[in-house]
Specification:
By secondary structure, the chain is α/β, with parallel strands linked by helices. The chain has two domains: about 230 residues, Rossmann fold, CATH 3.40.50.410; about 120 residues, no CATH class. It is built from 13 helices and six strands. Helix 5 links the parallel strand 4 and strand 5.
């Protein structure tokens, strides 16, 4: 019964974000930049390899983005697309700093449908530009990654064509990068044109995405530390919010070792454990502990005096800092191991994959917003 309830809560949480809703940006400290990234992914039958690559690398990508200087707040969105007559044309999963939520949506993506060549690229690009709650701050780095293998149906008249949408994107300060899977000539021509019009970059990769997931001897220990870190979460908010977040945290503690290892590193770098965490928000001064209504607190803290709550939060933060130090030390060894393995693969003729192309373009566009990456 408890297992069924957990699954229901997770499913309800993921379904809730599937609609195009405005997600409010997280509080921002003075001088802290923001990076907003939307992945617009073709999910038709030919894209199974790319979807698998995205699932394997989404935590790595988030981890790399948060390493910018100054350290940015990262928000991500997903817009999967197919074509008319398929199970769906598009879905919109809004911009959020809850990367566990993004990962949960992505893990449910399956390649199906399509088969007639062109897809409804224009609808997907339209939804990414117009249905996501992009920051209105011109200092925010806003990027779309359009990933697919076939050109749009320009004969469809219910949405603007890609050239008009690319112009609309850059007018809103959104760069559009295009990643072509495979070698369709017409798609290549249009992908190049979209990137040119929206001041983005164009990349061509293998049909399967080309991403290489490298298991390491350090994944298991980092997965354990990820669970330890999640064990320090103090989830707060209204009852439904707490239930959804607790379910999500339990799911995050069960990630496969490579994903859990990357998640642990992301949490340590971002200075966060999970969304709706009281300890993080007190440290970042997003909330004042003494002013929170009791019904926003978990049961354990409701029974404490204000002084006891303050001491408890400080104790949890100290424990968390110790776990983060261990994560950073082991993650450095893991990164070095992966770097060496990728160097070997490059010597053997391996070409850069989906994740590496994402980071290459991000570095260029981030520099325009005074965010630097190594």
């Amino acid at each position: 019964m408890r297992h069924a309830l957990l699954l229901a809560l997770i499913a309800a949480g993921f379904a809730h974000a599937a609609e195009p809703v405005a997600v409010q940006p997280a509080p921002q400290t003075a001088g802290q930049p923001r990076v907003e990234v939307a992945f617009v992914l073709d999910t038709t039958g030919s894209m199974g390899g790319l979807i698998a690559a995205a699932k394997a690398k989404i935590w790595y990508i988030a981890n790399q983005i948060v390493l910018g200087k100054p350290k940015p707040i990262v928000r991500m969105a997903l817009v999967p697309y197919r074509d008319k007559g398929d199970a769906y044309v598009t879905k919109v999963f809004g911009l959020t700093d809850n990367i566990d939520e993004v990962y949960g949506h992505l893990m449910k993506f399956k390649a199906a449908g399509g088969g007639d060549g062109p897809e409804n690229v224009n609808q997907a690009l339209h939804d990414a530009v117009n249905k996501l709650a992009w920051s209105s701050d011109r200092k925010t780095l806003k990027i779309i990654y359009l990933v697919g293998d076939y050109p749009p149906h320009n004969e469809y008249k219910d949405v603007p064509t890609y050239d008009k949408l690319a112009k609309s994107a850059i007018e809103k300060g959104i760069y559009v990068n295009t990643i072509l899977c495979g070698n369709n000539a017409e798609a290549r021509r249009i992908w190049l044109d979209i990137a040119r019009r929206a001041e983005g970059s164009f990349f061509a990769i293998a049909q399967d995405g080309g991403a290489k997931e490298i298991p390491t001897p350090f994944d298991g220990e980092l997965a354990r530390l990820n669970r330890d870190l999640l064990g320090t979460a103090v989830v707060y908010g209204r009852g439904e919010v707490r239930a959804r977040q607790r379910a999500m945290n339990i799911a995050a503690g069960r990630y496969a070792a490579p994903a859990a290892a990357s998640r642990a590193k992301y949490a340590a770098d971002a200075g966060t454990v999970a969304s709706n965490d009281l300890v993080d928000d007190v440290r970042k001064r997003n909330v004042k502990l003494e002013k929170l209504d009791k019904d926003m607190l978990p049961e354990k803290l409701r029974k404490m005096t204000p002084a006891e709550r303050k001491a408890h939060v400080a104790e949890v933060q100290k424990k968390r800092d110790e776990i983060n130090k261990k994560i950073q030390a082991i993650a450095a060894k893991r990164a070095d191991y992966i770097k060496k393995e990728l160097a070997k693969a490059a010597k053997a003729g391996r070409k850069a994959g989906f994740d590496e192309k994402v980071m290459a373009s991000l570095k260029v566009q981030a520099a325009k917003k005074d965010i630097t990456y190594k």
